[in-house]
Amino acid sequence: MPLPKPSVARPAASNRKRLLALPCVLALALGLSACAKTVSSNGLKGDSKDAAETIKNFQTHVTSGDEKKICGEDLAKTLVSKLSAQAGGCEGAIKDQLKEVDNFEVTLEAMQASGTTATAHVRSIYSGKNRKGTLTLVKEAGKWKISGLG
Q1: For position 123, what pLDDT does the model report?
Q2: pLDDT single digits (tens) 20-55
Q3: Which CATH superfamily hosts domain 13-149?
Q4: Which residues of the chain carry a pLDDT beneath 70?
Q5: Residue 27: its pLDDT value, please?
Q6: Rounded Cα gap, residues 3 and 132, in angstroms
Q7: pLDDT at position 98
Q8: Of 61, 80, 104, 125, which has the fewest Cβ atoms less than 10 A away?
Q9: Would you kindly state where each structural domain of the chain is located, as residue ranges?
Q10: Cβ atoms 111, 51 nearer than 8 A
Q11: Confidence at residue 69, expressed as pLDDT on a 0 to 100 scale
Q12: What is residue 141's predicted lDDT score, i.e. its pLDDT?
């Protein structure tokens, strides 16, 4: 789903912050709305397996609409911080974006973990079109957290 084009007039500072954070939330919500159906940690070991499990847990929380767990357990501090600056905070932003999620399949093609970062290469079908993406994760306090989708 394409984001609306910005208007010619500049939004107020508080609205600019919100506009900057929304693409990130939308990408995460759209990119992972069906992970639990096809993400498998079979064959993965160590940090790669743990990072894949984080993606599966995120999907469970997306499916159940549990914004509190998404913000508290699944997303990296930097992302939560950006979303918390908005009216309604992280949970409000996630709740709004989850209303826009369609159902589609996501397949984990490869997972690489090294030190405190991990990269998941995913393939999805959204609105009938194949899309490839890269999901990034960081290790915070010994747990993998989602930090972005590219």
Answers
A1: 79
A2: 444 455 455 545 444 445 566 678 899 999 999 998
A3: NTF2-like; domain 1 (3.10.450.100)
A4: 1-41, 101-106, 125-128
A5: 53
A6: 19
A7: 78
A8: 125
A9: 13-149
A10: yes
A11: 95
A12: 95
- Residue 11's identity, in one-letter code, is P
Are 134 and 112 in contact by the 8 Å Cβ rule? The answer is: no
**Token reading at 74:** 């699944």
Could you write out the DSSP letters of every residue in 49-87? HHHHHHHHHHHHHHHHT-HHHIIIIIB-HHHHHHHHTST
Q: Is the dihedral of CA 47, 52, 56, 62 positive or negative?
A: positive
pLDDT at 131: 79
Question: Comparing C-alpha atoms, which of 144, 148, 117 is closest to residue 52?
Answer: 144
CB half-sphere exposure, 93, CA atoms < 13 A: 27
